[in-house]
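Subject: complex prediction, re-run

Hi both,

The earlier run crashed halfway through, so I resubmitted it with identical inputs.
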Amino acid sequence: MGFEKFGRISFTSQTKVSEFVDYLEQGELRATRCRCCEKVFFPPRADCASCLGGDMEWVGFNGCGTLVSFTVVNYAPTGFEGDVPYTLALADFNGIKVFGRLSSKLSMNEIKVGMKVKIDVITLPGGQITYQFNAA
Amino acid sequence: MPKDVAIIGVGQSAFVRSYGGSIRELAFEAFREAMKDAGISAVDVGASIICSAPEYDKQRSPAGLIAEYLGLNPQPTFMVESVCSSSTTGIRLGYSLIKSGLHDLVVVLGFQKMSEISSADSQERMGRGADIMWEAPFGTMMPAYYAMHAQAHFARYGSTEKDLALIRVKSSKYGVLNDKAVYRKEVDLEQVLSASAVAVPLKRFDCCANADGASCIIMAGAGKAKEISKKPVWILGLGSATASMTLTGRGSLTGLNCARLAAQQAYEMAGLKPGDIDVAEVHDCFTIAELMAYEDLGFAEPGRGMDLIREGQTYIGGKIPVNVDGGLLSKGHPIGATGGSQVRTVVLQLRGEAGAIQVPGAEIGLVHNIGGVGVYGNVIILGR
Ligand SMILES: [Zn+2]
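This time it finished cleanly. Structure:
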Protein backbone atom coordinates (compact mmCIF):
# COMPACT_ATOMS: atom_id res chain seq x y z
CA MET A 1 0.00 0.00 0.00
CA GLY A 2 1.01 3.64 -0.40
CA PHE A 3 2.00 3.69 -4.01
CA GLU A 4 -1.54 4.50 -5.16
CA LYS A 5 -0.79 8.07 -4.04
CA PHE A 6 1.86 8.50 -6.76
CA GLY A 7 1.06 10.46 -9.91
CA ARG A 8 -2.04 11.96 -11.47
CA ILE A 9 -3.54 8.45 -11.68
CA SER A 10 -1.72 5.46 -10.20
CA PHE A 11 -2.33 2.03 -11.67
CA THR A 12 -0.35 0.24 -8.95
CA SER A 13 -0.90 0.07 -5.20
CA GLN A 14 1.41 -2.67 -4.01
CA THR A 15 5.16 -2.56 -4.60
CA LYS A 16 8.25 -3.17 -2.50
CA VAL A 17 9.47 0.31 -3.42
CA SER A 18 6.48 2.24 -2.02
CA GLU A 19 8.88 4.15 0.27
CA PHE A 20 9.44 6.21 -2.88
CA VAL A 21 6.17 7.97 -2.00
CA ASP A 22 7.29 8.55 1.61
CA TYR A 23 10.41 10.34 0.31
CA LEU A 24 8.27 12.38 -2.10
CA GLU A 25 6.15 13.45 0.88
CA GLN A 26 9.36 14.73 2.45
CA GLY A 27 10.03 16.71 -0.76
CA GLU A 28 12.70 14.34 -2.13
CA LEU A 29 13.00 12.27 -5.27
CA ARG A 30 15.04 9.17 -4.58
CA ALA A 31 16.52 6.27 -6.54
CA THR A 32 17.56 2.87 -5.19
CA ARG A 33 21.17 1.61 -5.06
CA CYS A 34 22.18 -2.02 -4.78
CA ARG A 35 24.23 -2.47 -1.58
CA CYS A 36 26.00 -5.41 -3.19
CA CYS A 37 27.15 -4.05 -6.57
CA GLU A 38 26.38 -0.30 -6.08
CA LYS A 39 24.34 0.00 -9.25
CA VAL A 40 21.87 2.89 -9.04
CA PHE A 41 18.34 2.51 -10.39
CA PHE A 42 15.76 5.04 -11.46
CA PRO A 43 12.94 4.23 -11.57
CA PRO A 44 13.67 2.56 -8.23
CA ARG A 45 13.82 -1.25 -8.15
CA ALA A 46 13.57 -3.72 -5.30
CA ASP A 47 15.76 -6.29 -7.06
CA CYS A 48 19.12 -5.95 -8.81
CA ALA A 49 19.20 -7.56 -12.25
CA SER A 50 23.00 -7.10 -12.40
CA CYS A 51 23.97 -9.18 -9.35
CA LEU A 52 20.56 -10.69 -8.44
CA GLY A 53 20.83 -9.01 -5.03
CA GLY A 54 17.77 -7.73 -3.18
CA ASP A 55 19.35 -5.40 -0.63
CA MET A 56 18.72 -1.82 -1.73
CA GLU A 57 19.27 1.58 -0.16
CA TRP A 58 17.59 4.86 -1.08
CA VAL A 59 19.81 7.57 -2.55
CA GLY A 60 19.06 11.17 -3.52
CA PHE A 61 19.77 13.02 -6.74
CA ASN A 62 22.41 15.71 -6.83
CA GLY A 63 22.49 18.86 -8.89
CA CYS A 64 20.51 19.73 -11.94
CA GLY A 65 19.65 17.72 -15.01
CA THR A 66 19.55 18.28 -18.75
CA LEU A 67 16.37 18.07 -20.81
CA VAL A 68 16.74 15.14 -23.25
CA SER A 69 13.41 15.66 -25.02
CA PHE A 70 9.83 16.79 -24.50
CA THR A 71 6.42 17.04 -26.12
CA VAL A 72 3.28 19.08 -25.52
CA VAL A 73 0.25 16.80 -25.75
CA ASN A 74 -3.14 18.09 -26.84
CA TYR A 75 -5.00 14.81 -26.40
CA ALA A 76 -4.93 12.68 -23.31
CA PRO A 77 -5.86 9.17 -22.29
CA THR A 78 -9.00 8.53 -20.26
CA GLY A 79 -8.75 10.23 -16.87
CA PHE A 80 -6.14 12.81 -17.93
CA GLU A 81 -8.35 14.92 -20.24
CA GLY A 82 -8.66 17.75 -17.71
CA ASP A 83 -4.89 18.32 -17.75
CA VAL A 84 -4.36 19.09 -21.47
CA PRO A 85 -2.25 20.61 -22.76
CA TYR A 86 0.63 19.24 -20.69
CA THR A 87 4.28 18.63 -21.38
CA LEU A 88 5.90 15.22 -21.03
CA ALA A 89 9.67 15.15 -20.80
CA LEU A 90 12.77 13.07 -20.23
CA ALA A 91 15.72 14.54 -18.33
CA ASP A 92 19.20 13.23 -17.60
CA PHE A 93 20.74 13.72 -14.16
CA ASN A 94 24.39 12.70 -14.55
CA GLY A 95 23.48 9.50 -16.34
CA ILE A 96 20.28 8.77 -14.41
CA LYS A 97 17.28 9.45 -16.63
CA VAL A 98 13.94 10.61 -15.21
CA PHE A 99 10.58 10.71 -17.01
CA GLY A 100 7.92 13.21 -15.95
CA ARG A 101 6.05 16.38 -16.77
CA LEU A 102 7.48 19.86 -17.16
CA SER A 103 5.97 22.61 -15.01
CA SER A 104 2.90 24.08 -16.70
CA LYS A 105 4.22 27.53 -15.70
CA LEU A 106 7.05 27.33 -18.25
CA SER A 107 6.24 29.05 -21.54
CA MET A 108 6.83 27.20 -24.80
CA ASN A 109 9.70 29.44 -25.90
CA GLU A 110 11.55 28.74 -22.64
CA ILE A 111 11.57 24.97 -23.29
CA LYS A 112 14.54 23.67 -25.28
CA VAL A 113 16.24 20.30 -25.58
CA GLY A 114 19.46 20.67 -23.58
CA MET A 115 18.08 23.19 -21.06
CA LYS A 116 18.98 22.74 -17.39
CA VAL A 117 16.18 21.45 -15.19
CA LYS A 118 15.57 20.72 -11.52
CA ILE A 119 12.97 18.58 -9.79
CA ASP A 120 10.06 19.96 -7.79
CA VAL A 121 7.85 17.70 -5.72
CA ILE A 122 4.22 18.76 -5.98
CA THR A 123 0.90 17.76 -4.43
CA LEU A 124 -1.99 17.61 -6.87
CA PRO A 125 -5.60 18.58 -6.16
CA GLY A 126 -7.10 15.48 -4.53
CA GLY A 127 -3.93 14.74 -2.57
CA GLN A 128 -1.98 12.73 -5.14
CA ILE A 129 1.76 13.40 -4.99
CA THR A 130 4.19 13.62 -7.89
CA TYR A 131 7.23 15.46 -9.19
CA GLN A 132 7.78 17.76 -12.14
CA PHE A 133 10.69 19.39 -13.93
CA ASN A 134 11.28 23.12 -13.72
CA ALA A 135 13.90 25.44 -15.19
CA ALA A 136 17.03 25.27 -13.02
CA MET B 1 21.54 -17.62 -47.82
CA PRO B 2 19.26 -20.05 -45.95
CA LYS B 3 16.28 -21.30 -47.98
CA ASP B 4 14.69 -23.56 -45.36
CA VAL B 5 11.33 -21.88 -44.80
CA ALA B 6 9.15 -20.18 -47.41
CA ILE B 7 6.01 -18.09 -47.50
CA ILE B 8 3.59 -19.83 -49.84
CA GLY B 9 0.40 -17.88 -49.27
CA VAL B 10 -0.58 -14.34 -48.27
CA GLY B 11 -3.91 -12.69 -47.56
CA GLN B 12 -5.30 -9.52 -46.07
CA SER B 13 -8.75 -8.10 -45.37
CA ALA B 14 -9.47 -4.52 -46.31
CA PHE B 15 -8.35 -2.25 -43.45
CA VAL B 16 -11.39 -0.20 -42.41
CA ARG B 17 -12.44 2.23 -39.67
CA SER B 18 -15.12 -0.05 -38.36
CA TYR B 19 -15.63 -3.61 -39.58
CA GLY B 20 -19.24 -4.68 -39.76
CA GLY B 21 -18.69 -8.19 -38.52
CA SER B 22 -17.16 -10.19 -35.68
CA ILE B 23 -13.46 -10.94 -35.13
CA ARG B 24 -13.90 -14.50 -36.44
CA GLU B 25 -15.37 -13.20 -39.70
CA LEU B 26 -12.67 -10.55 -40.00
CA ALA B 27 -9.98 -13.22 -39.53
CA PHE B 28 -11.64 -15.43 -42.11
CA GLU B 29 -11.34 -12.75 -44.82
CA ALA B 30 -7.54 -12.83 -44.63
CA PHE B 31 -7.45 -16.61 -44.16
CA ARG B 32 -9.63 -17.33 -47.21
CA GLU B 33 -7.43 -15.15 -49.43
CA ALA B 34 -4.19 -16.73 -48.16
CA MET B 35 -5.46 -20.31 -48.45
CA LYS B 36 -6.64 -19.71 -52.02
CA ASP B 37 -3.33 -18.02 -52.79
CA ALA B 38 -1.44 -21.06 -51.45
CA GLY B 39 -3.84 -23.50 -53.11
CA ILE B 40 -4.17 -25.67 -50.00
CA SER B 41 -6.93 -26.83 -47.68
CA ALA B 42 -7.25 -26.98 -43.89
CA VAL B 43 -5.98 -30.60 -43.67
CA ASP B 44 -2.62 -29.42 -45.00
CA VAL B 45 -2.15 -27.09 -42.03
CA GLY B 46 0.00 -28.38 -39.16
CA ALA B 47 -0.57 -25.59 -36.66
CA SER B 48 -1.93 -22.05 -36.38
CA ILE B 49 -0.47 -19.05 -34.58
CA ILE B 50 -2.98 -16.30 -33.77
CA CYS B 51 -1.60 -12.78 -33.29
CA SER B 52 -3.51 -10.00 -31.56
CA ALA B 53 -3.11 -7.40 -28.84
CA PRO B 54 -5.66 -8.83 -26.41
CA GLU B 55 -6.52 -5.52 -24.71
CA TYR B 56 -8.77 -4.80 -27.70
CA ASP B 57 -10.56 -8.12 -27.61
CA LYS B 58 -13.76 -8.73 -25.73
CA GLN B 59 -13.27 -12.43 -26.43
CA ARG B 60 -10.89 -14.04 -23.95
CA SER B 61 -8.38 -16.50 -25.41
CA PRO B 62 -9.28 -15.74 -29.03
CA ALA B 63 -6.88 -18.33 -30.52
CA GLY B 64 -9.25 -21.20 -29.74
CA LEU B 65 -12.21 -19.38 -31.25
CA ILE B 66 -10.38 -18.29 -34.39
CA ALA B 67 -8.84 -21.73 -35.00
CA GLU B 68 -12.30 -23.30 -34.76
CA TYR B 69 -13.82 -20.80 -37.21
CA LEU B 70 -10.95 -21.27 -39.67
CA GLY B 71 -11.58 -25.02 -39.59
CA LEU B 72 -8.21 -25.70 -37.99
CA ASN B 73 -9.25 -28.13 -35.24
CA PRO B 74 -7.79 -30.42 -34.00
CA GLN B 75 -4.38 -28.96 -34.93
CA PRO B 76 -2.53 -27.03 -32.20
CA THR B 77 -3.06 -23.28 -31.93
CA PHE B 78 -1.82 -20.56 -29.61
CA MET B 79 -1.72 -16.82 -29.38
CA VAL B 80 1.31 -14.55 -29.42
CA GLU B 81 1.48 -10.90 -28.51
CA SER B 82 4.11 -8.22 -28.85
CA VAL B 83 1.63 -5.37 -29.39
CA CYS B 84 2.08 -3.82 -32.85
CA SER B 85 4.68 -6.41 -33.88
CA SER B 86 2.59 -9.44 -32.87
CA SER B 87 2.26 -10.97 -36.33
CA THR B 88 5.97 -10.79 -37.20
CA THR B 89 6.62 -12.38 -33.81
CA GLY B 90 4.14 -15.05 -35.00
CA ILE B 91 6.19 -15.51 -38.17
CA ARG B 92 9.37 -15.91 -36.11
CA LEU B 93 7.65 -18.63 -34.08
CA GLY B 94 6.26 -20.24 -37.23
CA TYR B 95 9.79 -20.34 -38.62
CA SER B 96 11.01 -22.13 -35.50
CA LEU B 97 8.13 -24.65 -35.53
CA ILE B 98 9.02 -25.54 -39.10
CA LYS B 99 12.81 -25.57 -38.61
CA SER B 100 12.40 -27.76 -35.53
CA GLY B 101 10.57 -30.35 -37.62
CA LEU B 102 7.46 -30.22 -35.42
CA HIS B 103 5.30 -28.97 -38.31
CA ASP B 104 5.85 -28.49 -42.03
CA LEU B 105 3.07 -25.99 -42.69
CA VAL B 106 1.98 -23.19 -40.34
CA VAL B 107 -0.71 -20.48 -40.62
CA VAL B 108 0.07 -17.13 -38.98
CA LEU B 109 -3.13 -15.14 -38.59
CA GLY B 110 -3.04 -11.57 -37.24
CA PHE B 111 -6.17 -9.59 -36.50
CA GLN B 112 -7.44 -6.59 -34.60
CA LYS B 113 -10.87 -5.13 -34.31
CA MET B 114 -9.88 -1.85 -32.68
CA SER B 115 -13.44 -0.53 -32.99
CA GLU B 116 -14.57 -3.06 -30.35
CA ILE B 117 -13.74 -0.33 -27.81
CA SER B 118 -13.94 3.51 -27.91
CA SER B 119 -11.05 5.61 -29.18
CA ALA B 120 -10.44 7.13 -25.71
CA ASP B 121 -10.39 3.67 -24.13
CA SER B 122 -8.07 2.53 -26.86
CA GLN B 123 -5.65 5.40 -26.13
CA GLU B 124 -5.83 4.64 -22.43
CA ARG B 125 -5.09 0.96 -23.00
CA MET B 126 -2.25 1.76 -25.38
CA GLY B 127 -0.93 4.24 -22.78
CA ARG B 128 -0.76 1.31 -20.40
CA GLY B 129 1.48 -0.32 -22.98
CA ALA B 130 4.01 1.94 -21.24
CA ASP B 131 5.27 1.15 -17.71
CA ILE B 132 2.16 1.53 -15.54
CA MET B 133 4.13 2.23 -12.35
CA TRP B 134 6.50 4.91 -13.56
CA GLU B 135 5.28 6.46 -16.81
CA ALA B 136 1.54 5.91 -17.35
CA PRO B 137 0.71 7.97 -14.17
CA PHE B 138 1.91 11.06 -16.10
CA GLY B 139 -0.68 10.55 -18.87
CA THR B 140 1.38 8.88 -21.58
CA MET B 141 0.24 7.86 -25.06
CA MET B 142 1.95 6.46 -28.13
CA PRO B 143 1.97 9.77 -30.07
CA ALA B 144 3.70 11.49 -27.14
CA TYR B 145 6.53 8.97 -27.01
CA TYR B 146 7.18 9.17 -30.75
CA ALA B 147 6.92 12.97 -30.56
CA MET B 148 9.73 12.93 -27.99
CA HIS B 149 11.84 10.92 -30.43
CA ALA B 150 11.09 13.51 -33.13
CA GLN B 151 12.13 16.43 -30.89
CA ALA B 152 15.35 14.63 -30.03
CA HIS B 153 16.10 13.90 -33.70
CA PHE B 154 15.35 17.52 -34.69
CA ALA B 155 17.59 18.87 -31.92
CA ARG B 156 20.52 16.57 -32.63
CA TYR B 157 20.47 16.33 -36.43
CA GLY B 158 18.54 19.33 -37.76
CA SER B 159 15.69 17.33 -39.29
CA THR B 160 12.42 19.27 -39.46
CA GLU B 161 8.64 19.04 -39.39
CA LYS B 162 8.78 19.45 -43.15
CA ASP B 163 10.90 16.29 -43.50
CA LEU B 164 8.23 14.38 -41.57
CA ALA B 165 5.50 15.94 -43.71
CA LEU B 166 7.30 14.76 -46.88
CA ILE B 167 7.03 11.20 -45.56
CA ARG B 168 3.25 11.55 -45.19
CA VAL B 169 2.96 13.05 -48.67
CA LYS B 170 4.72 9.97 -50.08
CA SER B 171 2.53 7.66 -48.03
CA SER B 172 -0.68 9.28 -49.25
CA LYS B 173 0.41 9.11 -52.89
CA TYR B 174 0.71 5.33 -52.59
CA GLY B 175 -2.28 4.93 -50.26
CA VAL B 176 -4.49 6.15 -53.10
CA LEU B 177 -3.36 3.11 -55.12
CA ASN B 178 -4.06 0.56 -52.35
CA ASP B 179 -7.66 -0.62 -52.41
CA LYS B 180 -7.20 -2.22 -48.97
CA ALA B 181 -6.08 1.04 -47.31
CA VAL B 182 -8.30 2.94 -44.88
CA TYR B 183 -7.06 6.37 -46.04
CA ARG B 184 -7.07 6.81 -49.81
CA LYS B 185 -6.88 10.57 -50.32
CA GLU B 186 -3.80 12.40 -51.46
CA VAL B 187 -2.59 15.07 -49.02
CA ASP B 188 -0.13 17.84 -49.89
CA LEU B 189 2.68 19.34 -47.87
CA GLU B 190 0.61 22.35 -46.82
CA GLN B 191 -2.22 20.18 -45.47
CA VAL B 192 0.16 18.05 -43.45
CA LEU B 193 2.03 21.03 -42.01
CA SER B 194 -1.09 23.03 -41.13
CA ALA B 195 -3.02 20.22 -39.41
CA SER B 196 -3.66 20.47 -35.67
CA ALA B 197 -1.02 19.15 -33.27
CA VAL B 198 -1.60 15.85 -31.49
CA ALA B 199 1.70 15.79 -29.57
CA VAL B 200 4.14 18.49 -30.69
CA PRO B 201 5.71 18.25 -33.27
CA LEU B 202 3.44 15.44 -34.51
CA LYS B 203 0.26 16.65 -36.16
CA ARG B 204 -2.82 14.82 -37.33
CA PHE B 205 -1.33 13.55 -40.58
CA ASP B 206 1.90 12.46 -38.89
CA CYS B 207 -0.11 9.77 -37.09
CA CYS B 208 -1.57 6.57 -38.51
CA ALA B 209 -5.23 5.79 -38.06
CA ASN B 210 -6.70 3.03 -35.93
CA ALA B 211 -8.29 0.40 -38.14
CA ASP B 212 -9.92 -3.00 -38.11
CA GLY B 213 -8.19 -5.62 -40.18
CA ALA B 214 -6.69 -9.07 -40.52
CA SER B 215 -3.68 -10.57 -42.29
CA CYS B 216 -2.67 -14.15 -42.96
CA ILE B 217 0.72 -15.59 -43.87
CA ILE B 218 1.16 -19.28 -44.71
CA MET B 219 4.63 -20.72 -44.20
CA ALA B 220 6.08 -24.08 -45.21
CA GLY B 221 9.34 -25.98 -44.98
CA ALA B 222 11.51 -26.27 -48.10
CA GLY B 223 10.28 -29.69 -49.22
CA LYS B 224 6.61 -28.89 -48.78
CA ALA B 225 7.02 -25.41 -50.30
CA LYS B 226 8.64 -26.75 -53.49
CA GLU B 227 5.98 -29.46 -53.73
CA ILE B 228 2.95 -27.18 -53.55
CA SER B 229 4.09 -23.70 -54.55
CA LYS B 230 5.21 -22.37 -57.92
CA LYS B 231 6.29 -19.08 -56.39
CA PRO B 232 7.69 -19.54 -52.88
CA VAL B 233 9.25 -16.49 -51.26
CA TRP B 234 12.03 -17.49 -48.89
CA ILE B 235 12.75 -16.19 -45.44
CA LEU B 236 16.43 -15.32 -45.79
CA GLY B 237 16.97 -13.48 -42.53
CA LEU B 238 15.22 -12.95 -39.21
CA GLY B 239 16.15 -10.56 -36.43
CA SER B 240 14.41 -9.78 -33.17
CA ALA B 241 15.41 -7.63 -30.20
CA THR B 242 13.95 -5.69 -27.29
CA ALA B 243 14.62 -2.51 -25.34
CA SER B 244 13.41 -1.21 -21.99
CA MET B 245 9.77 -0.32 -21.72
CA THR B 246 10.67 2.84 -19.81
CA LEU B 247 12.28 5.66 -21.77
CA THR B 248 14.61 6.09 -18.78
CA GLY B 249 16.38 2.87 -19.79
CA ARG B 250 17.16 3.98 -23.36
CA GLY B 251 20.52 5.14 -24.64
CA SER B 252 19.19 7.84 -26.94
CA LEU B 253 15.87 8.88 -28.44
CA THR B 254 17.12 9.53 -31.98
CA GLY B 255 16.57 5.93 -33.09
CA LEU B 256 15.27 2.58 -31.87
CA ASN B 257 17.98 0.26 -30.62
CA CYS B 258 15.78 -2.84 -30.90
CA ALA B 259 15.40 -2.11 -34.62
CA ARG B 260 19.15 -1.63 -35.13
CA LEU B 261 19.90 -4.94 -33.41
CA ALA B 262 17.14 -6.83 -35.21
CA ALA B 263 18.38 -5.47 -38.55
CA GLN B 264 21.98 -6.49 -37.82
CA GLN B 265 20.84 -10.04 -36.98
CA ALA B 266 18.69 -10.30 -40.10
CA TYR B 267 21.41 -8.95 -42.43
CA GLU B 268 23.94 -11.32 -40.89
CA MET B 269 21.68 -14.38 -41.20
CA ALA B 270 20.89 -13.52 -44.83
CA GLY B 271 24.48 -12.58 -45.69
CA LEU B 272 23.18 -9.31 -47.10
CA LYS B 273 23.69 -5.61 -46.48
CA PRO B 274 21.35 -2.59 -46.60
CA GLY B 275 22.33 -1.80 -50.19
CA ASP B 276 21.05 -5.22 -51.32
CA ILE B 277 17.44 -4.45 -50.38
CA ASP B 278 15.21 -3.61 -53.36
CA VAL B 279 12.01 -2.77 -51.47
CA ALA B 280 11.15 -2.24 -47.79
CA GLU B 281 8.11 -2.06 -45.58
CA VAL B 282 8.85 -0.16 -42.37
CA HIS B 283 6.74 0.48 -39.29
CA ASP B 284 5.54 4.05 -39.92
CA CYS B 285 2.97 4.30 -37.13
CA PHE B 286 4.16 7.93 -37.07
CA THR B 287 6.17 9.78 -39.70
CA ILE B 288 9.16 10.04 -37.34
CA ALA B 289 9.17 6.24 -37.05
CA GLU B 290 9.83 5.94 -40.79
CA LEU B 291 12.60 8.55 -40.62
CA MET B 292 14.29 6.64 -37.78
CA ALA B 293 13.83 3.35 -39.66
CA TYR B 294 15.84 4.70 -42.63
CA GLU B 295 18.77 5.08 -40.24
CA ASP B 296 18.19 2.06 -37.99
CA LEU B 297 18.06 -0.23 -41.06
CA GLY B 298 21.23 1.28 -42.56
CA PHE B 299 19.55 2.83 -45.62
CA ALA B 300 21.04 6.14 -44.41
CA GLU B 301 23.80 7.09 -41.99
CA PRO B 302 22.63 8.05 -38.48
CA GLY B 303 21.26 11.60 -38.68
CA ARG B 304 20.99 11.59 -42.48
CA GLY B 305 17.62 9.85 -42.95
CA MET B 306 16.01 13.09 -44.03
CA ASP B 307 18.22 13.24 -47.13
CA LEU B 308 16.46 10.13 -48.48
CA ILE B 309 12.99 11.68 -48.33
CA ARG B 310 14.19 15.15 -49.43
CA GLU B 311 15.72 13.58 -52.55
CA GLY B 312 12.73 11.28 -53.18
CA GLN B 313 14.94 8.18 -52.80
CA THR B 314 12.24 6.22 -50.96
CA TYR B 315 9.75 6.52 -53.83
CA ILE B 316 9.48 3.84 -56.56
CA GLY B 317 12.40 4.58 -58.86
CA GLY B 318 14.56 5.82 -55.96
CA LYS B 319 17.47 4.10 -54.24
CA ILE B 320 15.29 2.23 -51.76
CA PRO B 321 11.49 2.35 -52.19
CA VAL B 322 9.85 2.32 -48.73
CA ASN B 323 6.17 1.74 -47.87
CA VAL B 324 4.95 1.94 -51.44
CA ASP B 325 1.67 0.34 -50.31
CA GLY B 326 0.93 3.49 -48.26
CA GLY B 327 2.42 2.14 -45.04
CA LEU B 328 0.61 2.21 -41.72
CA LEU B 329 0.01 5.94 -42.23
CA SER B 330 -2.38 5.33 -45.14
CA LYS B 331 -3.34 1.67 -44.76
CA GLY B 332 -4.24 2.04 -41.10
CA HIS B 333 -2.74 0.10 -38.21
CA PRO B 334 -4.84 -2.81 -36.91
CA ILE B 335 -2.23 -3.76 -34.29
CA GLY B 336 -2.12 -7.57 -34.50
CA ALA B 337 -2.60 -7.60 -38.31
CA THR B 338 0.00 -5.00 -39.25
CA GLY B 339 3.18 -7.08 -39.53
CA GLY B 340 1.46 -9.71 -41.66
CA SER B 341 0.18 -6.98 -43.97
CA GLN B 342 3.73 -5.65 -44.38
CA VAL B 343 5.00 -9.15 -45.18
CA ARG B 344 2.18 -9.65 -47.69
CA THR B 345 3.13 -6.47 -49.53
CA VAL B 346 6.78 -7.55 -49.81
CA VAL B 347 5.83 -11.08 -50.92
CA LEU B 348 3.65 -9.65 -53.73
CA GLN B 349 6.51 -7.34 -54.72
CA LEU B 350 8.98 -10.23 -54.95
CA ARG B 351 6.55 -12.30 -57.00
CA GLY B 352 6.05 -9.36 -59.39
CA GLU B 353 2.35 -9.26 -58.47
CA ALA B 354 2.19 -5.82 -56.83
CA GLY B 355 0.34 -4.13 -59.70
CA ALA B 356 0.40 -0.32 -59.74
CA ILE B 357 2.97 -0.20 -56.93
CA GLN B 358 5.37 -2.80 -58.35
CA VAL B 359 9.05 -2.01 -57.86
CA PRO B 360 10.51 -3.28 -61.14
CA GLY B 361 12.67 -6.38 -60.75
CA ALA B 362 12.52 -6.51 -56.92
CA GLU B 363 14.36 -9.63 -55.71
CA ILE B 364 15.13 -8.90 -52.05
CA GLY B 365 12.71 -7.24 -49.65
CA LEU B 366 12.76 -6.23 -45.99
CA VAL B 367 10.08 -5.88 -43.31
CA HIS B 368 10.61 -3.76 -40.15
CA ASN B 369 7.83 -4.13 -37.57
CA ILE B 370 8.00 -2.46 -34.14
CA GLY B 371 5.95 -3.22 -31.00
CA GLY B 372 5.33 -0.44 -28.49
CA VAL B 373 7.67 2.53 -28.78
CA GLY B 374 10.71 0.47 -29.65
CA VAL B 375 10.11 -2.16 -26.97
CA TYR B 376 9.95 -5.04 -29.48
CA GLY B 377 11.67 -4.96 -32.88
CA ASN B 378 11.37 -7.56 -35.65
CA VAL B 379 13.15 -7.44 -39.02
CA ILE B 380 12.56 -10.04 -41.74
CA ILE B 381 14.45 -10.29 -45.04
CA LEU B 382 12.69 -12.09 -47.87
CA GLY B 383 13.94 -13.25 -51.27
CA ARG B 384 12.79 -15.09 -54.38
ZN1 LIG C 1 23.53 -5.49 -7.60
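The longest helix of chain A spans residues 19-25.

- K.
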